[in-house]
Amino acid sequence: MPLYDKLQEDLNAARKAQDKARVLVVGTIFSDVKNKKIEVRRDLTDEEVIDVLRKGIKRRRESIEMYTGKRDDLAAKEHEEVAILEVYLPASVSDEELRAAVKAAIAGGATQIGAVMGKVLPQFKGRAEGSAINAIAREELGKQG
User: Fold this and answer.
1) Are residues 76 and 30 in the same domain?
2) Tens digit of pLDDT for each residue in 28-46?
3) Which residues constitute the domain of residue 8?
4) Which of 86, 102, 94, 90 is CA-nearest to residue 135?
């Protein structure tokens, strides 16, 4: 089942169950996905839907950072929303797998962070966060110098 249809099905199920929190989160993301669909004027691939999901999760994580220490109630709410959305993402890649790809890129001649990211990021599109890859790449490049 395409991810777009899965989101729509889960949104309808949450509405029937009167799960207000889930309706709000899934409804917001579904709306973002529909807007993207209108923007590109065609049905979205699962990868494109995952990109929209990642952006939604990233926004919520940024909110968590802002709220932490000041409004822990809102930070907890954002954590719950992230957990609801992460269900739709494919299994993430282990740090060891990322590190091996980064080392391979460096061994292949990539000596700058941009070159390493350019080689590694496409391999894990939708399965790993750019920030995690960036941190590992910086660490490995630091060992080189």
Assistant:
1) yes
2) 999 999 999 999 999 999 8
3) 3-86
4) 102
